[in-house]
Target: Beta-glucosidase
Amino acid sequence: MPHSFASFFMGGFECATHKRRDGLQIDVLASTGHATHAARDYTLLAEAGVKTVRDGLRWHLIEAGAPGQYDWSSFLPMLDASIATGTQVLWDLCHWGLPHGLDIFSDDFVTRFEAFAAAAARLIQDRNPTPIPHYCPINEISFWAWVGGDVKAFAPHQEGRGPELKRQLVRASLAAIRAVRGVDPRARFLQPEPIIDIVPEWNDVEKYPHIVEQSRNHTASQYEAWDMLAGRREPELGGSAEMLDYIGVNYYWNNQWVHGGDRKPPGHPDHKPLHRMLVELWERYRRPILITETGAEMGADVGWLGYVAAEVRQARREGAEMVGVCLYPVMDYPGWDDDRHCRCGLIGVDEDWDVRSLRADLVEELRLQARITENVT
Model:
């Protein structure tokens, strides 16, 4: 199936809407002001050569009233800004937030998300019918299953229910894909998941074989959601090969670690080069791969972009179908737990979350990597 993004290097706006451990509802699009200044933000990215972005709908606001009653006022300014600026947007339908009172473990969650996805697709098609729409049904199924189903940090704040939550999120994602395709068969879908690599301490290898096995099993768990969507695992959930479209890879400096120990970023003796992880992913699924999240805070951001871009080019040389890299977050945002001003991405924002400006050094690096990447096939 052909694919086309307006720019290979993309920008992702942090659009998390989860409930924290203390019950506070996060809404990063509101706290950064992006929800009301989307046109300004999209225009800035276009100046840097970024014409494709990840952005999100806020289901908890859109369906805040009675089930099936949608108020699109929180979304239409962003949708209209994308149309006015000619920005291609890959829309997250659910970035960890639900309408108040909806039980994520219920059948009602699946049916309501299915209906919401169809309604959103109809609105987007009616407003801007020409482009092929792109959606991420549910962001990071595996991470949400762990953080909300095992360690209680996000809603639904459960322990020991991670596998159950993962299956439920897969069911909902599959239902949403079918619903959106019923509205617009051209629609394309991203399935972002973190990729990880865990190894045992070198002196544990012979002494503690169970640690070796735990490390291996934990690393393999990164494939579970994709395997379920593709029908390779638990086919009773309804997955099939055609339900797996773009493989979305979320990858940061801390996605690799030693079992029970430190992280292993580039330079660590046990670090696994990103290109090897990408090639293995390609060989497993043979689906186009998009880096849906990657980045670092100021001070490490330029070097990190150079590393990721070089690794993506190497993966492409070795046969992986790499179709894009999304810098995420592409704009400063307040920390989820402490509201710390996290300075990251191409767009810097002042302390009042009002004045925006491009970071010249990162823009220069981005343009350099874009020129180099254009010549790698």
Remarks:
- The mean pLDDT is 96.
- Residues 313 and 372 are 9 Å apart (CA to CA).
- The longest strand covers residues 88-94.
- Residues 9-374 form a domain with the TIM Barrel fold (CATH 3.20.20.80).
